[in-house]
Amino acid sequence: MMSAATIKQPQPLPVGETARLAVSIRDLDIRFGDKGNEFTALSKVSVDIPEGSFVTMLGPSGCGKSTLLRCIADLVHISDGSVSVFGRPPRQAREGRDFAFVFQEATLLPWRSVLDNVCLPLEVGRHDKSSYADPMKLLALVGLNGRENALPHELSGGMRQRVAIARALVTKPRILLMDEPFGALDEITRDKLNEELLRIWRETGTTIVFVTHSIPEAVFLGEHVLMLQAHPGRVKEFMKVDLPYPRALAMRDTVDFIKVTAHLRALLEECI
Ligand SMILES: Nc1ncnc2c1ncn2[C@@H]1O[C@H](COP(=O)(O)OP(=O)(O)OP(=O)(O)O)[C@@H](O)[C@H]1O
Questions:
Q1: What's the confidence (pLDDT) of residue 34?
Q2: Predicted local confidence at residue 272, as pLDDT
Q3: Which residue, 12, 125, 229, 253, shows the most beta carbons closer than 10 Å to its own?
Q4: Residue 87 near ligand 1, beta carbon < 6 Å
Q5: How far apart are alpha carbons 51 and 38 in whole angstroms?
Q6: Is 218 helix (H, G, I), strand (E, B) or coil?
Q7: What is the pTM of this model?
Q8: What's the CA-to-centroid distance between 233 and ligand 1, angstroms?
């Protein structure tokens, strides 16, 4: 169990640790704009994300959380430094479908059924479709048994996000990149999806990198929390959350949980 001493001295994952890495980022700089009018979004970011881990990302608004996620996904030009995804550049990882993205909005095609939305990635590109997940099994995994023929407008916001998660998992990505996926949901739905996401993580073994503004959500889900500070975006702390899995929502009322959230809240105030 966590002690106050653990919280004061969180254990950063040493750069170059021998565990197999899903993502390795070294001295990453991201600058936007033209020369002479550049804006530095991220500066000298180095972090290692172990395979199979669940990393949550916190930090003040505009500190570069989404930008960092987008670097892993090959959606942002890297100004300096390096990003490697399972040992290869993000472009190759994208071509190999190593990762999938889930955004705050489910972005389902409104005219397609739940099942057809989940199957959408299988229709794009030339890949060995036999290696993909069974869409019906995925719908069961995300708790949408029997809703495969429903249209998106017939679903609640939480159900639409479940469809988005199933769609992301259909190509069996090794990494799931999630950018505030539950940010627009009511608290009860969010809590339920938090528990379910932990179950999905356990059952699939997928590495998850999850951006959130909620400290309790970051602590409840994360095996590690990556805290970024702003102006420019840098790593403030990469800490292991020393709370056991499986985790149930009641854990949020424990002293150990509250100690971790208090530590992160104080840290967040230093980051602004
Ligand atoms: N394509 C872009 N061109 C120019 N500036 C950008 C671009 N993308 C992001 N930025 C800037 O980089 C900074 C980091 O943005 P980012 O969206 O990564 O922050 P964030 O931490 O995810 O913010 P929030 O928590 O508010 O979602 C911001 O100042 C943003 O305006």
A1: 86
A2: 80
A3: 229
A4: no
A5: 34
A6: helix
A7: 0.91
A8: 10
